[in-house]
Amino acid sequence: MRHLCMPQGLAADEIPKLEALVCTARTVKRGSTLYRSGEPFSNLYAVRTGSLKTVLTHRDGREQVTGIHLAGEALGLDGIGEDTHTCHAVALEDSSVCIMPYDALKALCRESGSVQQRLHKLMGEQIVRETSHMMLLGSLNAEERVATFLLDVSERHAKRGYSPSKFHLRMTREEMGSYLGMSLETVSRMLSRFQKRGIIEMEGKLIRIADFAALRSM
Amino acid sequence: MRHLCMPQGLAADEIPKLEALVCTARTVKRGSTLYRSGEPFSNLYAVRTGSLKTVLTHRDGREQVTGIHLAGEALGLDGIGEDTHTCHAVALEDSSVCIMPYDALKALCRESGSVQQRLHKLMGEQIVRETSHMMLLGSLNAEERVATFLLDVSERHAKRGYSPSKFHLRMTREEMGSYLGMSLETVSRMLSRFQKRGIIEMEGKLIRIADFAALRSM
DNA sequence: CGCCCGATTGATAACGCTCAAGGCAAGTGG
DNA sequence: CCACTTGCCTTGAGCGTTATCAATCGGGCG
User: Fold this and answer.
1) Low-confidence residues of chain A, pLDDT below 50?
2) What is residue B21's predicted lDDT score, i.e. its pLDDT?
3) pLDDT at B9
4) How would CATH label the architecture of B141-217?
5) Which pLDDT does position A159 carry in this prediction?
6) Chain A closest CA to B13's CA: distance in Å?
7) For chains A and B, what is the number of CB pairs under 8 angstroms?
8) CA–CA separation, A131 vs A180, rounded Å?
9) Residue among B62, B128, B215 with most chain A CBs within 10 A, to mutate
10) Does residue A186 reach within 7 angstroms of strand D, measured from its CB?
11) CATH number for the domain formed by residue range(s) B2-136
12) Phi-psi sector, A162: left (phi>0), alpha (psi -120 to 50), beta
């Protein structure tokens, strides 16, 4: 369990308490939903293996991918605000998640300052991630968005001990486009452009970053 | 103090504890900053009077307004994730805020479940607000963005007991544009268009919404 | 084998940005 | 008190980035 998001920064004697809490797990098949918008909120999740997207649906039916959640990352925080999930969580590949009942977690927070600290940190990090994504959507052009996205995914892979330079994008171009606020065609064009310039190598969804500096300088 | 964001949902006997905590206040003059990106995080704030914006600065200098905070709303949650503020908070008009030391608030959370609940709710609401703003930035066109923004401000005014149909936008067109991911000229054009259609009346920053249904149907 | 989904690439068009000019209101200094 | 400056807003013209539409291709799966 030490590879997961929750225990970081906890004292050794608190980890067992947390383990007792998160003992349950669940698998989510590619394309199926972990939870839906409107469902009552009762659990937080930690992605154990695989990856999921969160999707917000506008009343007219338009959909926007609001988050990508890789192994080791948290999921479900969207439900805390209104006791109801406000978006769907859909698996990008066959995945498994740890279930953390929110009420139990809250109770544990009152016993343990470091659990409390950890939960606050998770929420705070989500807030920061989202504001920087707002900056991406509001201020960057298509090329900069795709470059930023590749670097972001790379960094998150590295944090979990995987190669930062070679990884599988589990989503479609359309999902990437939705997340980045652009059409799937523009995503494809930007990736092709990067490949033509020798910045990345690409084979379908498999990406190898050849020139980090070039991506960073955009 | 009952008009503020923090006490909502607390038991009567807990409000005094909270009051002891948030006794200090601070004024922020129009254009001056309450906190800056990079500063160590130690306080949350509740806007008492006036309004502030939060601004994220890209390394190349580009700025994006990531939030507008009206009277009664919370401020400063961006610092929780990394113990450091990640954006600037700047007053849109002469304003005053309550200061809530975060460490003391954390301690109070461990004593009182309802204070804990309240703090979680504030963070959760911020997360939900931000995802729906991501949807706005990623999927709506200029007209829809401005319409959505007007309705949002209207609703937040209403929640505090002010008129939902007539209010002062304290920010410049440029700040609105930055928040909505568009140029100040486009903001101006959209407002003019709404006025021409009789949907709003406008006199500089003073807005009167004449036709809510028209705004909502965009 | 054929079908369908996803990706790529091109052509065209539109939405919104940039640049520019002008106006209005408030503040400043002579 | 008036000329001048300054900041903000509005409006127009032209252009560029990116969306849309369309055709083609390849791979996976029934």
Assistant:
1) 1-2
2) 63
3) 61
4) Orthogonal Bundle (1.10)
5) 93
6) 19
7) 141
8) 14
9) B128
10) yes
11) 2.60.120.10
12) beta
Q: Which amino acid is at A174?
A: E
The answer to whether the beta carbons of residues B175 and B53 sit under 8 Å apart is: yes
Q: For position B7, what pLDDT does the model report? A: 64
Q: Between A58, A110, A181, which is nearest B137 by CB? A: A181
- C1' nearest to CA of B184: which nucleotide? D9
Contact B81 A180 (CB under 8 A): no
Cβ contacts of B118 within 8 Å, gap of 6 or more = B6, B7, B8, B9, B10
pLDDT along chain B (218 residues), means of 10: 58 63 83 95 95 95 96 96 96 94 92 90 97 98 98 96 94 97 98 96 94 96
Query: Which pLDDT belongs to residue B113?
Result: 86
Q: Is the CB of A183 under 7 A from strand D?
A: yes
**What is the pLDDT, as a whole number, of residue B137?**
98
Burial of B194 from C-beta contacts in 10 A (0-12 / 13-18 / 19+): buried
Amino acid symbol at B197:
R
Instruction: Locate the domains of chain B by residue range.
Output: 2-136, 141-217
Q: Which nucleotides of D are covered by protein (CB under 7 A)?
A: 8-13, 17-22
